[in-house]
Design a protein that fits this description.
It holds the Pfam family 7tm_4. It is a multi-pass membrane protein. By secondary structure, the chain is mainly α. It has one domain: Up-down Bundle (Rhopdopsin 7-helix transmembrane proteins), CATH 1.20.1070.10. The protein contains ten helices and three strands. The longest helix is centred in the last third of the chain and has 35 residues.
Amino acid sequence: MDDTLNVTYLTFGGHVDVDRYRYVYFVIMFTIYILIICSNSVIVYLIWVHPNLHEPMYIFIAALLINSVLFSTTIYPKLLIDFLSDKQSISHQACLVQFHMFYSLAGAEFLLLAAMAYDRYVSICKPLQYPTIMSKTTVSIFLVSAWLLPACQLVLPTAMSAKEKLCRFILNGVFCNNTIYKLQCVISQARFVRDMVILLNVALVPVLFILFTYTRIFVISYRSSKEVRKKAAQTCLPHLIVLINFSCLCAYDVIVVGLEADFPETFRLIMTLQMILYHPLFNPIMYGLKMKEIHKHLKRLFFPAKIK
């Protein structure tokens, strides 16, 4: 606590041998951050410049990749600074901002995936009505809602956390996630119920909607022609794989991190970094390789001499 400025500082206690390997950590994470920005930005650029990719499905993919960059930017700059600092700390107010951004963008990811699932359902199951249903207005509403709804719902718990008295000042992690609650002297039942409602709204309901939608798609596709089944597999499987991957990482953050389990520091660090390291790189790789039109434009961009 800085009494002069009345600012409370928290220390990150999840780093492993940072004094010994600080430059190794910095180079690795900085390289990964640049790769995340470049790989996601390339696909967003391709979707932007090619008119045949100006369709709802690709617009949602672009939004998802932009969300990945924002998600990473919430964590990486501060993490890189900490690697080069003698003390890995953050003010309580800044930690709450990072907490709010982290979960807002995580919630936006689920809602964007839900919008993509609905888009695929209309495209495959109601193709004649697709242009009418998935209009520019509808797409815009989905995009704005995906980013605004989680952010608005998280304003209250973030503001309430700012008023809570702290009894601990060491975070068991390398950035501000739900471990911030363990610093509070009292964790009320009302706070728990409130957080469960938010989790239900921004994660569980979208996931259930996605699973229901894809089940409907695969059932209808199975009864349809081979061409319809192929289209469903090509466009839906990448979305489903991304959903499963992200859901597993979020399950660790919400459930395992919330438990008072005494895991080794190295295991905690590896699992915590999975969400900010693996997933933002997984999205562009998955969509770049599995989405036929995007893959075609990627080949033309990087191997123009081989494309005739």
